[in-house]
Structure formats: structure tokens, C-alpha cells
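Journal club prep — side note

Before the paper discussion, L.F. wants everyone to see what a predicted structure for a comparable chain looks like in C-alpha cell form. Sequence:
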Amino acid sequence: MARRVKRRGGKGGLFVLLLVLAAAAAGAVYIYTAPEFERVKPQIHAPDQLFWNRKDPIRIKLSDNVRLGSYEIVLSDGKHALKTGQGPIEGKEKTVLVKYPKSKVLDPKSKHFFLTVTVTDKSLWNLFRGNTAQKKIDIKVDYKRPNVNVIANSRMINQGGSALVVFQAEDENLDKLYVKANNHTFKPEPYKKEGYYAVLVAWPFTDDSFDAKIVATDLAGNKRETHIP
């Protein structure tokens, strides 16, 4: 008569299996909750479209909720592309400056560029590669300064008095327009026709001398200052 052999270790094997599953679950919970494995992408603070005079650098702000890791910037004229910046970055915020390259790779006559910004944080998420964000910015080149012409103004202004100035200011991408007299700023108001403005300028008693000028700036950063006679 054959003897029945009792299986040993059945409960022990089940215990080991449950232990492994518990450890795996704990590891999964840790990965999904630990700051080192955060899944929030960095942010690229820049408009979708901007104007550029190619003289002033473009300022791009990068930020992350925990810690930045690296960035890359590529400038393209539509036919050719050139890497204008890359490297590691530290901290939660960083502002990078994009200057027009001295290299002759890009077409110097191009009036339209594309700027691709890529930034990665130092998270261990995504198989330790971190979270990555990318943005493509449409750039239109504008070299022309705003046109400003004084149309009429009071012939004389006395200390403690005021004078009226009427002028014309034109630019397709006009951004800022004001009159500066000594260290005081005056805001012009639209006057009769489009592109015409009027402003009342004061000469305070506290100022010994008086000098006024119209300041106009467009979205590309082009600036014109016109003296008011």
C-alpha cells in the first residue's frame, strides 16, 4: 500500500509570495508619492509669438516645482537650425538669454525665425530621465523704430505751469508710448484721428529746468525718443 506524502512548505511559499507582493506594492506607492519621482513637467515662460530686433537678447524664464536639470535652445530660419544654448541648470528658476548667433549658418536676411526651447528636470520619473517640456516660439523680426512727429505744442511754458503737446506716433507693433519731462512721466491720450495723441505736460516748481521728450517703443524693443521743442 502506497504511502501518501505530505507536502511541506505550502504555507511558507504563500507567505513569501504575499511578502513579495506587499513589497512590490509598497515600492509602487513610494514611487508614486516620493518627491524624487514627481511627475510635474517644468514650465517655459514665454509667449507663443514675439517680435525681435535681433539686437537685444530674448529672455526665457524656466521653472520647476522641485529642481531643474538641463536645457537646450535651437534657433531656426525655416531651412537651417543652430543650437544657441544648452547645459545643466540648478535651482527652481533660471532665466536664459538668447542672442542672435554670430555664425553664418542662419540666413541674415530672414524676417521669420523659430525658437525651440527644451527643458528637463531632475526627477527620477520616466526611468530616471526626468520630466521634459518643450515649446516652439514663432519669432518675427522687426528693425524699424516707431515714427514720432510733433504736430503742435504750446510756445511757452513757465515754471509751475503746463503745456499742451499734440503729436503723431506710428508703428504696426507699438507697445509703449509716453512723454517724459525731467523725471516725470505723462500718459498721452488719443486725439481726433488714429495715430494722433495729446498730452498735458507740467513743469513743477521743484524743478529748476525743463526738458521734455516723447518716448515710443514697439514690441521688438525698438525705441525712438523725440525732443519736444
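L.F.'s comment for the group: The CA atoms of residues 159 and 208 lie 8 Å apart. Keep this in mind when we get to the figures.
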